[in-house]
Structure formats: C-alpha cells, structure tokens
Write a structure and sequence with these properties.
Strand order of the largest sheet: 1-8-7-2-3-4
Strand content: 35-45%
Shape: globular
Number of helices: 4
Radius of gyration: 21 Å
Structural class: alpha+beta
Amino acid sequence: MNVYNPSAKQFFDRYKNIDHIVIFYDKRDIATIEIFFRGKPQPTFGERYTLTFDGDLYLFRKKYGKFPFPNPTTAKLTNFQGIGKITDVNVIYNLTTTMQRDSLVHHFNFYTFEGNTEPLLGPADYRPTFKGDILKLTKKLEQDFKNWKPIAITDSMIIITGLVEKNGTIGKLKLIEGKPSVYSNKVLEFMSREATSWLPRVDGGGKRPWNVRISVRVNKDNSMKVSIL
C-alpha cells in the first residue's frame, strides 16, 4: 500500500547517501528502524536502531536530529485474495513501513495455518534478560549517585556493553558511548556489582554468550533512567 509522503523529502535531501528506511512496529508504536544506504547493484543495509532502548533512541537523535516519523497508521489487513476475510484465527501478520523520498509503502507480512489456532514455532530464540527489577536497580543507582557527589557529569547519557555468559553472569563491561570519567567509572563499578544475575541467550543451539547494552541517563532533576538491550 503506497502513500504519498512529501514531509520526508527534506530529510533525504540532507542525507543523500540514504536510499530508504524500514520501520518496524510493536502494535502501533515504532519499535525499530533499519537504514539502507545507496549501493550498486542494490541498496545495502547500514544501521539498526531499537527505539524502545533508550540508548539507541539517543544515538538516533544525536546523529539524525529531527526525523519525519510517519503518523501512526490504523491500517489493518481485512481481506486477501485466496484467503477471504482475515481473522485472528487464520492469519498472523505484522506491519512494516518502508520510507522513501516521496512515499510510504506499508507492507503486511503474514502467514497462515490450518487445523490449529496456535502458530507453528521454530526453535526458541531469546536475548539475554536481566533477572532483577530494573526499577529497583535504577533506584539503587540514584541513591548511590547522590553519595558520589560532587563529581562532574560530562555526559548525561552513557552506554556500556557487557558479555552475558552461559551461566548468567556478566563481565567485560566497558564504556562505548560517552567520555571516560570518574562518573562513568563509578557506573561501570555499580553495574559489575549490582547487575549480576541474567538469563543467558538461548537459540536452537542452546545457551551461548551474548553481548548486551546498558544505557544510563541522568535527567535534569537528577533522576536516572536505566535501559537494557
């Protein structure tokens, strides 16, 4: 389904190396953006931002500034030739949007199944998951942060990465966004001490080590937000 979209033209004029952008939704909210750059013989995948992760949202805004997000669409798949009327029982589908210079192309991606109301599932594939309560972790960090003062905050947003091992421990924590400082070192020490219990990545081959990213943002009122991907 192709929809005229004149608001994107200025963005594509500014970033001439971008060919198109694919937007993935979680229900009706934009969840992930994939950017494809111009290339021959065809466009090449370049960048992915998971906007439900505060760190990626920050990096996306830092690089691209104001972005012409499309208005939320209420488009639904109701009928399809060869299938007839679409119901929640006979079709599972999701919606993605491809943003081009002058248009939005909405794609309905779906599959059908018969004889059972449950879709066929492949091997389990789960990212590492923090076993604790992120809100409690954030409150503990806020309390510790009060005791660290006075220290200079050079970056209100920092992002660190760590490796979650098969046994659910985390190590190899390092700063990947923000300047090294007393503050960033203390956050690294805090995470290595407090964010220690994880469910490891699981896929068809079983448990395996996997990198996670943790962002920490200090707000103007000195409250904090911790986000994990």
